[in-house]
Write a structure and sequence with these properties.
alpha/beta, 14 helices, binds iron/sulfur cluster, rSAM_sf, rSAM, BATS_dom
């Protein structure tokens, strides 16, 4: 297919596809799916070989958020029966993180619900970062605390944070439909603050919220412009008790096409398969490893993922390898650059809430659970790990 040959050539040269080319990937048929995966897989192997980076989530503070992000089980008014707890103590968070590191994770993502941290919260998280780094030599720590005020990114950097996550989630045009308590511009501002403070910026999206193909392409192009080092791709987990509980819009094939499009637009960036992979990709998860070079190990913030051991077996069975702590994730040209990023010719809740979409392009309406692809039985609220007395899944 000419389209795929063009996209592979551009991906190998780190050249931006056109918007029409990105849209055409989303519009390919199921008959062409394996060709699409193979093409994007060539781009993935060029920049990341067969390595898979493992990341581990620790939810420092769960639920009770005053913000109204429609996709989020921790939002204002959510009746989802998630765990609710306030800040974990540094040693509790460190203990949870250690389980992920022991499972092979090289990055720990510290997430807290809320609009953004107070300065006291930044102090708290700084102590947690120190505790984690002391216990786990060489581990990368990413903070995900919401909107940042002036100086907070710098303070987190000084405390040892390596990265900061704040997702754009959806296109600027549809942002107001999913959240009213803050704006798309607020989110862009925080990603820029993190980048400006020398933190590795991580920013991604949530697919399956009823957005059109054009919205998906818009947000991925906006991410490339923002130039994060890592781009998490979440697939909406429609939690009962949230406004998007009936949004079952994704199929495994659609999810793969979305990941392929992100890889073509952001060829040399850490593309991370995030929340919702078990629910939406299901038995096709191993194919996604040909597209992404990074996944979360084990559970998500408020939902349970497949067993950490099953993640490791899937990686090995598919012929990939877990990336070691001493291997740089990003290609040399990005490490050397003053700042990395999605597509420089040259990465929510705050994010991975993990929170579906028909296989048709341009879907913009609501579908009822019970439509093909709806698997509410696979949505499992997290009941173990951080904030509980049970061992974490790692
Ligand atoms: S995504 Fe973050 S800010 Fe929005 S409701 Fe969830 S926890 Fe709050």
């Amino acid at each position: 297919m000419d389209l795929l040959n063009t996209l592979v050539d551009k991906g190998l040269r780190r050249e931006l596809p056109t918007r029409e080319e990105a849209l055409a990937v989303l519009a390919t048929s199921d008959d062409d799916l394996l060709d699409v995966v193979a093409a994007a897989g060539r781009v993935r192997r060029q920049w990341f070989g067969r390595r898979v980076k493992l990341n581990y989530l620790v939810n420092l503070k769960s639920g009770l958020c005053p913000e109204d992000c429609s996709y989020c089980s921790q939002r204002l008014g959510s009746t989802a029966e998630i765990l609710k707890y306030t800040w974990l103590k540094p040693d509790e968070a460190s203990q949870a993180a250690a389980a992920g590191v022991a499972g092979g994770a090289k990055r720990v993502c510290l997430v807290a619900s809320g609009r953004g941290p107070t300065d006291r919260d930044v102090d708290r998280v700084s102590k947690t970062i120190e505790a984690i780094k002391e216990r786990n030599e060489g581990v990368e720590v990413c903070a995900c605390l919401g909107l940042l005020s002036e100086g907070q990114a710098e303070r987190l950097r000084e405390a040892g944070a390596d990265a900061y996550n704040h997702n754009l989630n959806t296109s600027e045009a549809t942002y107001g439909d999913i959240t009213t308590t803050h704006t798309y511009a607020d989110r862009v501002d925080t990603v820029q603050k993190a980048h400006g403070a020398g933190l590795s910026a991580c920013s991604g999206l949530i697919a399956g919220m009823g957005e059109s193909d054009g919205d998906l392409v818009d947000v991925v192009f906006a991410l490339r412009e923002l130039d994060p080092d890592s781009v998490p791709v979440n697939f909406l987990i429609p939690f009962e008790g949230t406004p998007l509980a009936k949004e079952w819009n994704l199929t495994p094939q659609r999810a793969l096409r979305i990941l392929a499009m992100v890889r073509f637009v952001c060829p040399d960036v850490e593309v991370r398969l995030a929340g919702g992979r078990e629910v939406h990709l299901r038995t096709l998860q191993p194919l996604a490893l040909h597209l992404v070079n990074s996944i979360f190990l084990g559970d998500y913030l408020t939902s349970e993922g497949q067993a950490g051991r099953a993640d490791l077996e899937m990686i090995a069975d598919a012929g990939f390898e877990v990336e070691g702590a001493d291997t740089a994730t990003l290609p040399a040209h990005r490490v050397d650059a003053a700042s990395g990023g999605c597509g420089s010719q040259g990465g929510g809740g705050c994010a991975p809430c993990g929170d579906t979409a028909g296989d048709t392009a341009g879907y913009t309406g609501q579908q009822a659970a019970g439509t093909p692809g709806a698997r509410p039985d696979l949505v499992s609220v997290r009941r173990r790990g951080a904030g509980t007395g049970l061992a974490p899944n790692a």
